[in-house]
Amino acid sequence: MNNAKQIIETCASVLKLHYVKVGLEETICQAQIEKPTYIDFLAQVLQNEVHGRQKREQQRRMALAKLPPRHDLDEYDFSYSSGINRQEMKELRQLAWLDQAYNIILMGPSGIGKTFIASGLVYDAVKAGKRAYLMTMEELITIIKMKSISPTAMGNYNRIAKADLLAIDDIMLFPINKEDATGFFNLINIMHENTSIIITTNKAPTEWAKTLDDEIIATALLDRLLYRCEVINLKGTSYRMENRKTIFDKKSKQKDE
User: Fold this and answer.
1) What is the per-residue pLDDT across 5-37, written as a single tens digit (0 to 9) for each?
2) Mean pLDDT, to the nearest integer, of 38-62?
3) Nearest-5° angle of CA 175, CA 160, CA 153?
4) Coil, strand or helix at 102
5) CA 64 remoteness from chain centre
6) I want to staple 146 with a disulfide (CB 3.0 to 4.6 A). Which of 150, 216, 221, 242 is the partner?
7) 173-210 burial by CB neighbour count: b if 16+ within 10 A, else e?
8) How many CA atoms within 13 Å lie on the side-chain side of 68?
9) Quick one: pLDDT at residue 235?
């Protein structure tokens, strides 16, 4: 028994079956209780390896997604904004639009949940086994600018270009020079009809030309983003302002008065 176990552990190490090796003791104990057939035992051993690798890969993709602390759409509060209802949210979370490379534009003022929705959909996509990332427009422009001189930036650029879903937060918040705008357009052009893109913005697409300072690039960019796209216009009160934190305890302050 011990000799056979050592052989399995050695073979698992050679074949790089990490989860077979670390879970072998538990698998053997379970088999002694349940007494499966040889083929069922082998199936369980291989399933343990597959499940372990899948979990590790999901954890890796979740780390690369760079999600904020709050990103679970189960916690989304529909009372703070209008523009999307529960049924529409449910449809978005089913992710059928990803298979058709549809885009989503979330428009509206600050604090009404645009980033929360975007990060939540990225979270759902990663859980579904997709390659999905969330980043600000500023972070994306930095990668585009640095890719020709930094291997790390080039690696990140290629990873983004092959994504199933890219969420770009706060697009067009700050002015973008023509060179950066051209680089951004080139990336979107590569991803067009291959990758779904989520955009959060407080500016209507018609205002983008001013931010880019180039109407031709803005038109070409919108042509690709809006080809297959759901535009969701969110309205409401700012969640952050409604739940603003303060240094002093309000109750203590009222007693002092």
Assistant:
1) 788 888 888 888 888 888 888 888 888 888 888
2) 85
3) 75
4) coil
5) 8
6) 150
7) beebeeebbebbbebbeebbeebbbbbbbbeebeebbe
8) 17
9) 82
Tell me the per-residue pLDDT of 203-233, one tens digit each, with 9 for 90 and over: 887 788 777 877 888 889 999 998 899 999 9
What single string gives the DSSP state of each residue in 117-171?
HHHHHHHHHHHTT--EEEEEHHHHHHHHHHTTT-HHHHHHHHHHHT-SEEEEEST
β-pairing, 235-236 vs 81-82, is antiparallel
User: DSSP character for 194?
Assistant: T
The DSSP bridge pattern shows strands 235-236 and 165-169 to be: unpaired
What amino acid occupies position 40?
Answer: D
pTM, whole model, 2 decimals? 0.77
Closest CA to 99 of 74, 127, 125: 125
> Residue 215 corresponds to which tokens in the numbers above?
């109407």
Q: Please tell me whether residue 41 adopts helix, strand or coil conformation.
A: helix
Residue predicted with more confidence, 152 or 7: 152
Of 39-48, 64-73, 173-182, give the lowest mean pLDDT range: 64-73
Backbone angles phi, psi at 76, to 5 degrees: -65, 130
What are the helix (H) ranges across the chain? 2-14, 18-22, 24-34, 38-65, 86-93, 96-99, 114-127, 137-146, 151-161, 178-191, 208-212, 215-225, 239-242, 250-256
Alpha carbon distances (Å) from 121 to 64, 68, 87, 104: 15, 12, 15, 11
Q: Is 252 exposed, middle or buried (0-12, 13-18, 19+ CB in 10 A)?
A: exposed
Q: Specify the pairing of strand 165-169 against strand 196-201.
A: parallel
d(CA 84, CA 113): 11
